[in-house]
Amino acid sequence: MRDKFFQSCSCYIQIQLGFTQVLNRRQPRVQVYLTNCSSNSGKIHTNFRTYAHLLQNSIPSRSLGSHTHFNANSYMSYLKRLIHYNGHATDARHMFDKTPQRDEVSYWNRLIQSCAKSGNLKTAHQLFDKMPTRNVVSWNAMISGYDQYGLKEKVLNLFCQMVHSGVKPDQFTFPSTLRSCGFLSALNPGKQLHGYIIRTGFESNAFVGSALIDLYAKCEKTGDARRVFDEMPERDTVLWTTMIGVYAQNQFAEESLKLFCKMQKEDMKQDSIILLTVLIACGSLAALAQGKMVHAQVIKAGFHTNYIVGNAIVDMYAKCAAMKDAHRMFDRMSERDVVSWTAMIVGYIQNGYCEEALKLFQKLLWTDVKPNRFTFASTLSACANLAMLELGKQLHAHIVGVGYESVLSVESSLISMYAKCGSIDDAALVFNQIASKDLISWNAMIAGYAINGNGKEAFQLFKLMIEADMNPDRITFLNVLSACSHAGLVNEGCLCFELMRREYINLVTTNHYACMIDLLGRAGQLSEAENIVNNMHIKPDALVWKALLHACRIHANVELGERAAEHLLQCEPEEPSNYVLLSNVYAAANRWPDAAKARKLMKDRGLKTQRGCSWIHVKNRLYAFVAENTSHPLSEEIYAMV
Which pLDDT belongs to residue 629? Predict the structure, then answer.
């Protein structure tokens, strides 16, 4: 009955009376009382003040006997609850100052750890500064707290103070400090720390070794990371996972797969994380055979029911262009989240099945899974690729309804969709409504003007972008040069190209040279175009020679065309369109026998041109047409109309 009374206590007087009555009772009853009163979040700080008062004044140490230490531990536990669940760090600190155990380092450490883990770093540091003595646990508590909440510079400063104070770091100190060096890309301090680790004998510790590998990876020193890995006397699953992940994250997918094969030979246990990493590497390399082997290992290990691993398998098959396998895996998944659906939608789009992507998106809307910004952005690109303006507008309305209209990635996708569907005014309207434009949104709008033939608008927007202190990238310059080329803006294109070569030379690729050659070629300035090719700072590729050959076709310049064709066929001898382009150069100059020879050469090499395809969207259905195709049920009527 008395226990029930304690459980119902809520006011200060009741707590005092109830606790006073239990003082002479068994100690476990006090523990029950504390547990129940601490669950009342509104009164917890009052309860603890009462307990602190009673602990110091009302309970003689002789009456507690062997339970004195137990009470101190209980008291610390509830101080930690006070911090974690109620955020009363200051109250906990003041109460701690009144306890008899405040001179014991372990109690200081426990309170500091609680404050640090709950984000009360100011209170934690105040307690840390007041400590009569500090040990390695004290320093680790503060270093770990600052590391957890992203204050990496403070971590490094604390570590230096720790070393200077004469306290030796341990295996729990180094990982946080190494992570901070990696986060700050502080390679030199990281190397100095590595040397200190070797001197103190912690280089063989698996956790420290893993942190070292991660440090070098974040500083783009993959070779150094591999050396640390190779020099480890014993390598556990964590180390293997870290190193394989480093290769995968730094675009060394092939090395990632090789290391995974080596891990298998050493009969190391594989967890879901490492299999997930290897699946990503297989997708990056489009390594279907290896991906299927890893899929089999996932099933063997029992991880196939994990929806995160399932998502990685779907994504891997999609990147390997194995959409049937991807859909089979998708259908077998017992649990599908928004990542699962988005991976399938993106896979269909990347492999040219935009209509299937839209059908899958419609199915998604009938489920309980809510599309996210990536889902909407991907689906908008499918609408753009199929030029389905009405469906794009419906999707835009849905996006507004769910509140994603102000997300930059979605806004940029909306701009691209409207532009590719020919509604450039709607694209400009979306662009102008963006409060804080990023590089992607600027590029999307410039590209929109370019593909719609608005060269002047594209160039003016580029100038506004520069004035807004937004640094252009390769895509920006490519869009501007393309816009100038199709609009015949030779002077503007030359200004853009000169700016790029003068201030952004590292961004220049053969694509930009090809655009510039196309610009000059369309304007009839073939000698200037050839001069640019001859003075390129990088080796011309097939794209450059094709642009020059195309210009020769426009102006029937056979002599220059033959020189360009010679280089082009050396670069791409198996590309049939190159022979067709050369044939068209001869045809433009009325040299029909030579034109026939070029096409005969293509046929003799067993090359065939790919047929063109056009499509039309009627009543929510897409119809595709290829030359000489009679598969459509109304093909006779269609050809009769044509």
Answer: 66
Euclidean distance between the first and the last CA atom of the chain, given in angstroms as a whole number:
95
Residues 6 or more apart whose Cβ sits within 8 Å of residue 94: none
Q: Which two tokens stand for residue 511?
A: 């694509």
Position 294 in a domain: no
Q: Is the dihedral of CA 112, 114, 120, 123 positive or negative?
A: negative
Q: Assess contact for 260 and 230: CB atoms under 8 A.
A: no
Helix ranges (DSSP H) in 250-319: 253-265, 272-285, 288-301, 307-319
Question: Which pLDDT belongs to residue 292?
Answer: 93
Domain that holds residue 7: 1-133
> Would you say residue 589 lies in a domain?
no
Q: Output the furthest CA–CA distance in the chain (Å, rounded).
A: 117
Residue 359 burial (CB count, 10 A) = 14
For the stretch 62-66, contacts whose Cβ atoms lie closer than 8 Å and that sit 24 or more positions apart, written own/partner, are 63/23, 63/24, 64/27
CB-hemisphere CA count at 13 Å for 376? 27
Q: How far apart are CA 316 and CA 280, in angstroms?
A: 6
Cβ(330)–Cβ(314) under 8 Å? Answer: yes
> How high is the mean pLDDT in each 10-residue block of the chain (642 residues)?
40 37 43 45 47 46 40 48 45 52 68 76 80 86 87 91 90 91 91 92 89 90 90 86 85 86 83 88 89 91 88 94 94 92 95 93 94 94 92 94 91 96 95 94 96 95 94 95 93 94 92 94 92 92 93 91 91 89 90 89 81 64 65 69 66
Number of domains in the chain: 2
**Crossing angle (nearest 10°) for helices 44-57 and 12-22:** 40
- pLDDT score, position 625: 66
Pairwise CA distance, residues 367 & 606, whole Å: 50
Which residue among 133, 154, 182 closes a domain? Answer: 133
The tokens for 144 are: 């770990």
Neighbours of 393 (CB within 10 A): 17
Task: Give residue 620's pLDDT.
Answer: 60
Q: Please calculate the CA angle 260-266-271 and round it to the nearest 5 degrees.
A: 55
- Dig out the tokens for 600 from the structure: 């005969």
Q: Residue 88 has what pLDDT?
A: 45
Residue pair 344/327 in contact (Cβ under 8 Å)? The answer is yes
How do strand 613-618 and strand 621-626 relate by DSSP bridges? Answer: antiparallel
Give helix 272-285 / helix 288-301 axis angle, nearest 10°: 160
Write a three-state SS string for 309-375.
Answer: HHHHHHHHHHHCCCHHHHHHHHHHCCCCCHHHHHHHHHHHHHCCCHHHHHHHHHHHHCCCCCCCHHH
Q: At which of 117, 133, 149 does a domain end?
A: 133
CA distance 280 to 635: 45
Q: Which amino acid is at 404?
A: Y
Is residue 370 within 8 A of residue 341, CB to CB? The reply is: no
Q: Domain for residue 629, yes or no? A: yes
Q: Say which amino acid occupies 167.
A: V
Domain-embedded: residue 263: no
What is the DSSP code (8-state) at residue 43?
A: T
Residue 489 is given by DSSP the state: -
Beta bridge partners, 418, equal none
